[in-house]
């Protein structure tokens, strides 16, 4: 009984459910914005890297290495507290969105680039030999193949990055973890944390199922 | 009688990769409607010569003309348009694995030739019919045999109405029982008057279908003539040795 009372207190659930549902919306919105921005930027950087401009590629590689090496929390703190000392006040939501998008962009750039370098030269040659430009060959022939090869690692990375939205709790973003942990300190009950775990499962289990479907859908024999 | 038109002319072509000179002054002419066969040991520069003809490789010096137009000095921005006139078929087929057979044959028609989708599809089906694979239009490349894939690759090149077709060992990657279907398509093309430059070791096919045979060795055109001359009365020792090795079925052992 102590167990149920601690983790599944009915009154606490009723009190905090509306806030938590709202927080789920914030987490979902943040995750969706991050995924779209991160993957598009990563794809754009990988394609830009194909052009083979030395200086540009140097900066892409440095960017990707730094973003993958630094703990995201460090970037979040720098952007949130550092920028406001400079007089530029970014909201917590914006900071999380920017940092997680950059991190996802760095990882997906490396995934797409790895895919592109694994495409046989014959695919490029077939495109060019039929009069397609380099950009057309990239866009219609080689990049789609690279993207498909990258789907499994990309899906993992997307799930890992979206879970980091919980870092928003450190800088006051009203997402699932921060709402439930403040509810926990107000109510003195662990129940809001149970609710948070369930909320994450409600979001991520369908995401995992969707990711399996995507992996199957875009799998083809080469 | 009208003077035959020279569709492809290679003059003084040289190509080096770094220090290594792979082509050392190649001269070759292919008339309209001619099928010219190129044979020679592995590493003699056959692929490199072919790839210079659509500038997949940049020649080091010399000139190449397609239907009278010098293609060796056209600027890079005009390369794509030039390549539409030169069809190329690769040893490894190089079909796009993520697209259906029909889309493979349509892509460059729509994106490079700027044909409408409907026109490109009609043309693609016509070309697939010509290579005997209209019924496979909806299949994915991985579902086809090697011979079928190579015929789709031929249809993909033909759909752009090229003036010259280049074949780089089109049957070398195929199981022996599939070679015939590809050669049959090539023979059909020849009957339709297509100009073709073919690197291949299908000697029997060369005897039946080639107008001329060119023997390349160590970056030179070492000998050329009609199939009767080349196979019946080879002059150089190198060609004699090469022919005897090929007839024993070990071309690749010739690599040295
Ligand atoms: N991109 C390249 N870089 C360096 N060397 C090359 C390249 N392509 C071909 N070669 C060399 O050029 C020579 C001729 O090759 P190739 O034209 O493929 O001969 P073939 O088709 O007659 O077998 C070989 O020695 C090969 O190693
Ligand atoms: Mg070769």
UniProtKB/TrEMBL annotation, chain A:
PROSITE patterns: ABC_TM1. GO terms for molecular function: transmembrane transporter activity. It comes from the Bacteria. Keywords: Amino-acid transport, Cell membrane, Membrane, Transmembrane, Transmembrane helix, Transport. It is found in: Cell inner membrane; Cell membrane. Residues 24-214 form the ABC transmembrane type-1 domain. The keyword rRNA-binding does not apply. It is a multi-pass membrane protein. One of its GO terms (biological process) is amino acid transport. It holds the Pfam family BPD_transp_1. One of its GO terms (cellular component) is ATP-binding cassette (ABC) transporter complex. InterPro entries: AA_ABC_transptr_permease_3TM, ArtM/GltK/GlnP/TcyL/YhdX-like, MetI-like, MetI-like_sf. The chain crosses the membrane at residues 20-48, 55-80, 86-107, 193-214. Belongs to the binding-protein-dependent transport system permease family. HisMQ subfamily. PANTHER family: L-CYSTINE TRANSPORT SYSTEM PERMEASE PROTEIN TCYL (PTHR30614:SF0), MEMBRANE COMPONENT OF AMINO ACID ABC TRANSPORTER (PTHR30614). This is ABC transporter permease subunit. It comes from Pseudooceanicola albus.
